[in-house]
Each structure stands twice: as C-alpha cells, then as structure tokens.
Amino acid sequence: MSGRNQPSTAPASARGEILIEARGLSKHFAKKGAEPFTAVAGIDFEVRRGEVFGFLGPNGAGKSTTMRMIGCVSPSTGGSLRVFGMDPAADGPAIRARLGVVPQEDTLDTEMQVRDNLHVYGRYFGLPRAVIRERTERLLEFVQLADRARDKVEPLSGGMKRRLTIARSLINEPEILILDEPTTGLDPQARHVVWDRLYRLKQRGTTLILTTHYMDEAEQLCDRLVVMDKGRIAAEGAPHELIARYCTREVLELRFPLDEQDQSAQKAAGIAQKVEVLPDRVLMYADDGDGALQAVRARGLEPLTALVRRSTLEDVFLTLTGRTLVD
Length: 327
Ligand SMILES: Nc1ncnc2c1ncn2[C@@H]1O[C@H](COP(=O)(O)OP(=O)(O)OP(=O)(O)O)[C@@H](O)[C@H]1O
Prior knowledge:
Belongs to the ABC transporter superfamily. The protein is 35% helix and 27% strand. With 327 residues, it is α/β, with parallel strands linked by helices. The protein folds into 2 domains: 2-238, Rossmann fold (3-Layer(aba) Sandwich); 248-310, Alpha-Beta Plaits, CATH 3.30.70.980. The model is unreliable at 1-10 (pLDDT under 50). Residues 29, 37, 39, 57, 59-65 line the site of adenosine-5'-triphosphate (ATP).
C-alpha cells in the first residue's frame, strides 16, 4: 500500500485526498486589435483536503484570475482543471454548491440587515429555512457579529463587513473556502481578527485557499503556497521550506545616506552570500547577520541604521523575481 511509504513526518494535509488539480492551466484575455493578454500562463498545482493553500504574489500576478477559474466564474482557456474531480466547464453548479467564496470586493447587500444577507445566500443554495436560521445564528456568533444581526450592513466597519462575507460564504458548509485577499484594505487590528477566524477554520479542518500579498499572513496561515509572478508559478512549498531553499537564515538590513548606498554595497561585497540594493536600504543575506554586520564595520562602513532579522517570504520573492512584493 502506497500510504505505508509516506514519511511519518508528513502532515495530515499532505496525505489528504486531492480536491483541486491544475495542469498547464491558462487564461488568455482577448484584446481588440492586439495579441491576447496572458493572465495565467500554464500553471500546475494541487490542493489537498484539509490544507491551507496560498497564492502569494504582487498585483497582477494572476491570483484572482486563478481563483475565479476554480470558483467556476471564469472559464480557463488552456490546460486542465479539476475541482472535486469535476470539470468547471461542465459541472459548475455542482462544484459551486460545495465551495464558499469570499471575493476581493465585498458584494454584501448593504441595504439589508446583517442576518438577511445570510438568509438570502442560504435560499440561493436551496437550504430549508430552519437550517438557514440555525446556521445564521451559529455563523454570526463565529464571526463575532451576533450582536449586530438586526443592524443594516452599511454602517459596519470594513473588518466587520469582511467577517460577514466570511460568514455568508460558510452558509452552505463548503468543503473548500476560497478567499481572495481576505485582509486587503483592513487596518492591522481588523486584519488580526479576520486571521484569527481563518485560523479557527483551519483548526477545524476546513480546506482554505487564499490569495494574499501579505507575506506574514501567508507565513502564518498557509501549510503550502505557490509564489506567483506574471502568470507563472515561481516556486512552491511550505513557507519554511521556501525560506530555507531560497534564502539565508538571516538578513542584515542596512540604511546608508541614499547617495552612498551603491558605493557602500560595493565596499561590502563578498561579506554576505547575496546583496540586494533597494531604493531605501541594502539587504545582505547571511546566515549570521551579526557576524556580517561586524565585517561591514571592519571595512570602515558606518550605516545609519542596521537591523538583523530572520528571512521571510518577502525575501524569497525578492530572490526569485528581483522585485519587492509590496511596493
Ligand atoms: N477581464 C479581464 N480582461 C483583461 N485583462 C484582465 C481581466 N482580468 C484580469 N486581467 C489582467 O490579468 C492580470 C492578472 O490579474 P489578476 O487580477 O488575476 O491579478 P492578481 O494577482 O489577482 O492581482 P490583484 O492583487 O491586483 O488582484 C492583470 O494584468 C489584469 O489586468
């Protein structure tokens, strides 16, 4: 039996059944009088039951387009995609019934009461009224909006609206929850509350697929992720694996007077495994950041500020693409 050959350290999600499988998946948009624009350029990935799978990348990388293909709202134009073993082109309604979707833009009915937004969604899925009522109560409790159930949506804060959208997406008890940039535009505290709810869902074993350009979000929540750039997958793995594969253990961040940056970086050549000169700072990739800083100073360089930190997914992205993730 193949299952016996699995390494014992593999997380449960790594052994789960494949729920989504993409092979050479592409999306081209026709452009009048021009070559078609390729938003997704032949990507391969799979998502297993119970895992939190992330698409990390900058604006325009093709993350939302991929989500929309999985959500059966935008047909692929090349390659193959199976969701629950079914084809989105032929089995859209059957797939959608088992998915929950939190789109990038809130699509709540702001004139309605909070709970009615869930009721309408429940009816869309053909659920009995008693089931809708029971789930609405439970879900509003879960997203900490029970006390706002009878309020109109409009005056709610951005974070509350996002949580309501998450509650709404769960009304059909989906097997997979798709979240397109669930925390974009929220202030840090509101982001934290949303993360916390997503983390609860993860603990309950809900399969989550999310896109984000926040590396800390991806690092904390995702079991596995792909780094997307310009419609392609640049790397795939668990966050810690990607960091270990593409980066040194630590990064030394140095700030010099801006007109001395390039010259200072040149003087520091050879100290670190790799040096990146950004518009406002110099990054030196070294397993021992403090040692690198000592070596920098030994060469007579005096940075305005120096910070040693561990490598992050942001560094992975920079290493892979030569660009920063969030400008
Ligand atoms: N309907 C469309 N017609 C033409 N081009 C499109 C369409 N939808 C998306 N694109 C283009 O495809 C590319 C990928 O867009 P997509 O929204 O998937 O990126 P993203 O990674 O989700 O970025 P963002 O964080 O901005 O949502 C972009 O250049 C975008 O302008």
